[in-house]
Design brief:
heterodimer; A: alpha/beta; four-stranded mixed β-sheet; 7 helices; about 15% strand; B: alpha/beta; Rossmann fold; 2 domains; eight-stranded mixed β-sheet; two-stranded antiparallel sheet
């Protein structure tokens, strides 16, 4: 984690999950069995905290069943209008200072977007000044064509593109250490990045531990040991994103 | 607190017109034409008079076209990136291998239409004739419709809100001259929103024969699958079964098997058991699948010896059995 220049303090970071239909943040941040979010005196929602990150997601707001267990398996079957409303509430009715109004707010809010170029990014682009967009892709052409669309969309709504990340770029066989480009070569990705004029922030290899840690609610960066290539790349990416915002 | 109502009734897709203002209550609602949001809308008078409440005029046309389609299968996933479109394409290729059968693929992923690329017809255009829009044919017995054919370039983003997407889906159903089809496969976007509700509503009368749900082994994907199966139950679609994609990787070099996406909670098999749906099979990771998709060729034809091909063909047999074919 980085230091803020000129101070000893680490950045205060929040994670906002705008994937209304498939909210993964509760699981990924180990907050699935957390209590329902509380409200501040003024009626704003208090984010839940884990791994030193403030988190908010549709997943925390789904109605619980009679025995108090979260109904994570219930489908949210909504049309665009209701999705817009939910996005507005998640953006504007959450108090990132937490319970205590005298606490300073966040330095950075990381927003997890749903796939596609529909209601959610449109609503976000129209209502909020977004400082940067990081677009994650996998190597195959079908994924990359959606990256192009994502870039077009962000240009249309005036959101600066911080850069592109290639995920699951290759897998190193544990036994014989041969790299395998399971989802195709990184060539298309790099070509696309230069065609659309976006910076390549990094390439993350396929590491089995990532999905395992995620399923257990622990971000892979915090797992002891772990794949050094993955962690090193991620650290570097974080640094570059931070620098681009300041 | 956020008033979160679990949608008990599936709202009608046709009730919000494309030119409606932001908070349109819907033409079917009791507030139609009378709510504050209606002020200034071109449809206000019609809604207020109650004339808007009535069956969608598109429905009879949809029913007419669909009367010539024997089986309609939806391919769903909860999460994006699990291989839904790739699977739909392989399913299409497999059905089309039988020259006696006519198959159609309808790609209703309007924001991210992948089907044209995967089938190698990305640069084709849609032509229209007096009998309607003509699907793009990959081979004589495999026709495809997708918004991907209608965009000037692959980098054009389709940034549409719900009502406009519904309009296009209705056109795919009523204006496309599919001819007589044995199978119509519908590739959907991830999630449970406008596109899914529209398809279900428009095909309510002509009937959907079933849905195939695709997942990958890890819990984060399975969560979304449970929601997807819940959606199917809510709207009355039969779930033909669950496919677990990216299930294991065999190193071509040393033949060591790795579980890259660990099924930490039992994977697709366990979920299928828990939710009472059929487990159709597990497809292992093969780098040649992605490559074939990028080149627009049939993986099943190119690499018949791959364990992934065997897995696909077994799954497809099971689907046919479930349908009673």
């Amino acid at each position: 984690m980085h230091q803020i220049p000129g101070s000893q303090r680490k950045p205060r970071v929040g994670v906002l999950d705008l994937d209304i239909f498939g909210p993964s943040v509760p699981k990924l941040m180990g907050l699935e069995s957390a209590h329902e979010p509380r409200l501040t005196q003024k009626g704003a929602i208090v984010p839940l905290v884990n791994h030193a990150l403030q988190c908010m997601s549709m997943g925390f707001l789904l109605r619980r069943s009679a025995d108090g267990q979260t109904k994570v398996d219930t489908a949210v079957v909504w049309r665009g209008l209701m999705v817009q409303k939910a996005v507005q509430q998640l953006l504007f009715d959450v108090d990132w200072r937490g319970d205590n109004e005298s606490e300073p707010g966040l330095d950075v809010l990381v927003i997890d977007m749903p796939p596609g170029t529909g209601d959610v990014p449109l609503t976000l682009g129209q209502l909020v000044k977004v400082d940067g967009a990081v677009i994650v892709s996998t190597p195959q052409d079908v994924a990359i064509s959606d990256v192009r669309k994502g870039v077009s969309m962000f240009k249309k709504v005036d959101v600066p593109i911080t850069g592109l990340i290639l995920n699951t770029s290759h897998f190193i066989c544990r036994n014989c250490a041969t790299p395998h480009y399971i989802f195709g070569s990184p060539k298309s990705f790099h070509e696309t990045a230069s065609q659309v004029g976006a910076k390549v922030l990094g390439e993350l290899p396929l590491v089995g531990g990532v999905s395992e840690a995620s399923d257990h609610g622990v971000p892979y960066m915090l797992v002891g040991e772990g794949n050094q290539e993955w962690k090193g790349t991620m650290s570097r990416i974080a640094g570059e994103v931070w620098d681009s915002l300041h | 607190m956020i008033a979160l109502q679990q949608a008990q009734n599936v709202p009608d897709p046709l009730s919000v017109p494309a030119n409606a203002p932001e908070h349109c209550p819907g033409t079917e609602s009791e507030l139609a034409g009378k709510s504050d949001a209606c002020a200034g809308c071109a449809n206000q008078e019609i809604c207020a008079s109650g004339k808007a409440r009535g069956p969608d005029p598109a429905l009879p046309f949809v029913n007419e076209r669909m009367a010539n389609v024997k089986r309609k299968i939806l391919v769903l996933s909860g999460k994006g990136g699990v291989g839904k479109s790739t699977f739909t394409a392989q399913l299409g290729w497999a059905f089309a291998a039988d020259e006696e059968l006519q198959t159609g693929i309808m790609d209703v992923d309007i924001c991210g239409p992948s089907i044209p690329t995967i089938l190698g017809i990305a640069s084709e255009q849609v032509h229209s004739s007096s009998s309607g829009w003509s699907p793009v044919y990959v081979q004589d017995n495999l026709g495809v419709m997708s918004v991907g054919f209608m965009l000037p370039s692959s980098r054009d983003a389709v940034m549409w809100r719900g009502p406009k997407k519904n309009g296009l889906i209705s056109q795919f159903l009523k204006d496309v001259d599919w001819g007589t089809l044995d199978y119509l496969l519908v590739d959907t976007p991830p999630g449970t929103s406008d596109e899914h509700l529209s398809i279900v509503s428009y095909l309510k009368e002509s009937g959907i024969d079933g849905a195939v749900v695709i997942t990958t082994p890890q819990e984060v994907a399975l969560q979304d699958v449970r929601r997807e199966i819940d959606f199917c139950k809510k709207v009355g679609i039969r779930v033909l079964g669950l496919v677990e994609n990216m299930s294991g990787f065999v190193c071509p070099n040393c033949k060591n098997e790795s579980q890259i996406f660990k099924p930490s909670t039992g994977g697709g098999r366990r979920l299928a058991e828990d939710m009472g749906v059929e487990f159709l099979g597990a497809v292992p990771l093969d780098p040649r699948i992605g490559k074939s998709a990028d080149y627009g060729v049939s993986f099943l034809d190119e690499y018949p010896d791959s364990p992934a091909t065997t897995a696909y063909l077994d799954i497809i047999e099971k689907i046919k059995q479930q349908l009673g074919d």
